[in-house]
Amino acid sequence: MSEHDILSEAEREALHAIMHEPDLPPQRVLIVDDDKDARELLSEVLALEGIRCMTAASGETALKLLDSNKSIGLIITDLRMHRLSGLELVREVRESVRAALPIIMVSGDAEACDVIAAMHLNVVDFLLKPIDTDKLLALVKHELGI
User: Fold this and answer.
1) pTM value?
2) Are 34 and 49 in contact (CB under 8 A)?
3) Up-side HSE of residue 58: CA atoms within 13 Å toward CB?
């Protein structure tokens, strides 16, 4: 260390370690749908854009994944699912430590009351099936900061 250095050797090493930390892993999208084909199609569409996904066949599985995987940065969920509906899943998330997580709701047969209920739960958007993939990709990229 010369007399002109303002950092000690320990401070320099600490700064070097911070400056060269690996980037955090990209945030993943959790796709929740009890229809396997719909889950896989959405996952493939996002993967083609370099967006990493996880899938869940039920709301219950989605909640377990949210608890165990902090890299999930967005949920895309179907409205109509067995046992735990998309709206019930959103309510559970909103009452959890992940309450601020952005959620996009999709459905093939939504009624106006479903859309209104979803908007009251602060979903990012409500998309009707068949999904406009350009709009979905724009929403996902915006919410993940890509």
Assistant:
1) 0.82
2) no
3) 6
- Sign of torsion over alpha carbons 58, 59, 61, 62: positive
Tell me the C-alpha distance between 30 and 47, whole Å. Answer: 12
Per-residue pLDDT tens for 29-69?
999 999 999 999 999 999 999 999 999 999 999 999 999 98
Cα(104)–Cα(141) distance, rounded to whole angstroms? 12
Domain parsing of the chain, residue ranges? 25-144
Describe the crossing of helices 86-94 and 59-68 by its angle, rounded to 10 degrees: 30
User: Which CATH number is 25-144 given?
Assistant: 3.40.50.2300
Structure tokens at 56: 């869940």
